[in-house]
Amino acid sequence: MKVAADRDACMGAGVCVGFAPDLFDLGEDGRVRVLNGEVSGELRDQADEAVRVCPASALSLTD
């Protein structure tokens, strides 16, 4: 599974970093950066939650 971020849609809330700090960070511009696009194991649960709670719907998961 892969996680992706739409940096143009990102509003910099940082919720993703709070739920999945191993997958996401905020760049110098305050927008999401994907640290690890490949998701497996416990990271999948973190990624699912981050995608679900993102206020800008800027995150997605694909198989």
Automatic annotation (TrEMBL):
Transmembrane segments: none annotated. Ferredoxins are iron-sulfur proteins that transfer electrons in a wide variety of metabolic reactions. Its cofactor is [3Fe-4S] cluster. This is Ferredoxin. Keywords: 3Fe-4S, Electron transport, Iron, Iron-sulfur, Metal-binding, Transport. It holds the Pfam family Fer4_15. SUPFAM superfamilies: 4Fe-4S ferredoxins. InterPro entries: 3Fe4S_ferredoxin (IPR001080), Fe-S_cluster_ET (IPR051269).
